[in-house]
Amino acid sequence: MQMTKLERPKQSSATSWLPCVAGRGRFEWTHAPPAEHTIALKPASPHLTAFANYVINRLHIMSRIEAKTDVFRAIADPTRRALLDRLRAGPANAGTLASDFRSSRPAVSRHLRVLREARLVVDTRIGRERVYAVNPVPLQNVAGWLEGYRAFWQASLTRLKRNLEEK
Questions:
Q1: Domains along the chain?
Q2: What is the pTM of this model?
Q3: What is the C-alpha to C-alpha distance for residues 119 and 137, in angstroms, rounded to an integer?
């Protein structure tokens, strides 16, 4: 399958960009889009219009934006889980949290930003510093999702035990 790339006119980069469909069936930008929005597309069908390809591309970008706020992606990293465990003991600022880990302070700040975007931590400004604290509400969704699997595995292990005892 041939990969198609969004074509852009040669213009200076601008902070705002708007898509448009040219009359010749080509997809062009009125302004240069940010670099993260220029990706190669695999059209689902060669008969799709440029606008349909644009919509598919936007949906892909929107799914990446939603991924930033996904609690499961945020807690997938062991460092972020360790930060949450540390914050269970009480609120702390980024410097205090960074001193508890081998990572650099900018790395810990990036982890905190991911946790903040997923709403797992809340930050409060006190003077020049931010104090971070755990927000347990998003974790309730994770616990609810896990509860279904806990019941499944409990029933499966009970059946396994029963089958082993019969033999």
A1: 4-67 (no CATH), 72-135 (1.10.10.10)
A2: 0.55
A3: 9
